[in-house]
Amino acid sequence: VTPEPDRFRRVVSQVGCAIVGQTARLAPADGRIYAVRDTTATVESTPLIVASILSKKLAAGLQSLVLDVKTGSGAFMADEADARALARALVDVANGAGLPCSALLTDMSQPLAAEAGNALEVANAVRFLKGESAGTRLHRVTLALCAEALVQAGLAGNADDGEALAARALASGAALERFGAMIAGLGGPADFVERMDAYLPAAPVVRPVAALSAGIVAGMDTRALGLAVVQLGGGRSVPG
């Protein structure tokens, strides 16, 4: 649900952050152009991907932008060289348009956490903010992205200082408190972080799936895992 602009502005002003989706009024031509790309085999065209992503960012009037460009089996750009080229193009075009921008290349050859699915990932995010994921890949990627954002905003002089600031916000509970305030400000339950199990839905069927033999996991098809989550109801199989 996308909040009204007045509520969005109020939450950002009072809390300092908000998570929202774009409205149909933001870069409205992008959807039509994407439909043409789908019928002309140009969905994977790097210049058109750059135009699609940055049209929305530039139209929103951002002051700075940090991008997380994925690579690996679960990413749109599975090949690292292609992902690196996309990241470079995004940064170059954004900076050329007057939008300070940086990008991190992160690996999606395995999940960032032990959960996959809408409610499960929300619960994992809350546990992360409670300090239960220290030292994990999720922890490292999150701190790296936060550091870039803090440097872009002029709140940290370099990435190391930015990571230290983000780590302190996690350790002190300030990040969790701010997340809860954001949820309440956007119309969610005020006690969500304390009672998330009461609000997050549970699957109607819960069934353990055990390995057929002993061994060590040496690799994972993250794309197949994501498609399985979609088939189980954790995503859309058609646009809209």
From TrEMBL:
The Gene Ontology biological process terms listed for this entry are: pyrimidine nucleobase metabolic process; pyrimidine nucleoside metabolic process
Glycosyl transferase family domain boundaries:
2-176
Keywords of this entry: Glycosyltransferase, Transferase
What GO MF terms are annotated? 1,4-alpha-oligoglucan phosphorylase activity; thymidine phosphorylase activity
Quick check: keyword Metal-binding in the entry? no
Keyword Chaperone: yes or no? no
Q: What is its EC number?
A: 2.4.2.4
**Segment forming the signal sequence:** none
The reaction(s) this protein catalyses: thymidine + phosphate = 2-deoxy-alpha-D-ribose 1-phosphate + thymine
Q: Which Pfam families match?
A: Glycos_transf_3
Which SUPFAM superfamilies does the record cross-reference, listed alphabetically?
Answer: Nucleoside phosphorylase/phosphoribosyltransferase catalytic domain, Pyrimidine nucleoside phosphorylase C-terminal domain
One GO term describing the cellular component: cytosol
The cross-references to PANTHER family, in alphabetical order and at most eight, read: THYMIDINE PHOSPHORYLASE (PTHR10515:SF0)
Spell out the protein name for this chain.
thymidine phosphorylase
